[in-house]
Design brief:
alpha/beta, Rossmann fold, P-loop_NTPase
Length: 316
């Protein structure tokens, strides 16, 4: 069959066009008063890439009755609230298999980073965006989209796309109700995972992968083992500076340590429940998380490179 007459291809193209030109108007009807208070505060993950945020959001969305953008919602990135109203992708879903590849999950029901939804409101490059660089009209559309999705779910929504770490100023200004989950991981383990991903994706350790803090061009001149450690540090420096600059109080952030989360998911879920309660969120417990997860300890990159990274992280 001619590919242009294939009904599947036709449907995909039609949906793509609708996402870019039509569905944004549908959102306006789903959030008639986006300037009013949100029904529930949105919750944004922050942190460096490969810090364990995907596993964390899989566990959180299994254990707690929160909303989230799934792969099905992302297919309708022009109006994910419409996908929620039509399909309810997270309703009666199976328990997560706790697998992902570079933050990408399988299954319509699984949590999605959904970059296309984010790029409706924030530029692609450079990824770090100051408040004076955002488009006010797009920021109002951002609030409208979050409001419509919140109305559709009628519960707090967790957004897991770590590029939010580079967009804090706009998020905090236009969604002042926001809460933040900041992920932390041992620097050496985090850097190890970043180097492993570079090798897997590009076939080398030198090519930069994922989030670019403002100083990235200077950091690219460093050797790879220093690059990844500084990538992590600079991202966290941006997070701390921009949260403080936006006036986000300590009570509105939850610091999640990957190692602690793996050793006792139930304890962290309990602490997260208290965090939500203190911030006026009513979140129902759906199920108990797995007892524990075993982080990988085997060195999976060049041994000399690993040793150099370990030495740099411990002395710097």
């Amino acid at each position: 069959m001619n590919k242009y007459l294939n009904p599947v291809n036709y449907a995909r193209r039609t949906l793509a066009l609708a996402n870019r030109h039509l569905l944004g108007h549908v959102e306006s009807g789903l959030a008639p008063d986006p300037h009013g208070p949100l029904r529930h505060p949105p919750i944004f993950f922050l942190g460096a890439p490969r810090s364990g945020s995907t596993l964390a959001v899989q566990i959180i969305t299994d254990a707690l009755d929160v909303g989230y953008i799934s792969n099905r919602h992302c297919q309708w990135f022009g109006a994910p609230a419409l996908a929620e109203k039509l399909f309810h992708p997270s309703r009666n879903r199976p328990t997560s298999d706790y697998r992902s590849r570079h933050g990408v999950t399988d299954g319509w029901h699984a949590p999605a980073e959904c970059g296309e939804w984010w790029y409706r409101f924030f530029r692609r490059r450079p990824p770090y965006v100051r408040l004076d660089e955002v488009d006010p009209d797009k920021m109002r559309a951002f609030r409208r989209s979050v409001a419509s999705l919140t109305n559709a779910f009628d519960r707090p929504i967790v957004f897991k796309n770590l590029y939010a770490s580079l967009r804090i100023q706009g998020i905090a200004q236009y969604l002042p109700e926001s809460l933040f989950i900041v992920t932390h991981r041992d620097e050496v383990d985090n850097g190890h995972s970043l180097l492993e991903t570079r090798q897997r994706v590009f076939g080398d350790y030198q090519t930069w992968w994922s989030m670019e803090p403002p100083e990235t061009e200077a950091l690219k001149k460093l050797p790879p083992h220093e690059q990844v450690i500084e990538q992590i540090r600079h991202i966290h420096a941006v997070i701390e500076t921009d949260l403080a600059g936006a006036g986000v109080s300590e009570s509105r952030r939850f610091d999640l340590t990957f190692e602690k989360f793996c050793s006792s998911p139930a304890e962290l879920i309990g602490e997260l429940e208290l965090f939500f309660v203190r911030n006026g969120c009513t979140v129902q417990r759906l199920t108990n998380p797995p007892e524990k997860f075993e982080p990988r300890k085997i060195v999976r990159i060049d041994k000399a490179l690993y040793s150099a990274m370990e030495h740099y992280a411990n002395r710097a």
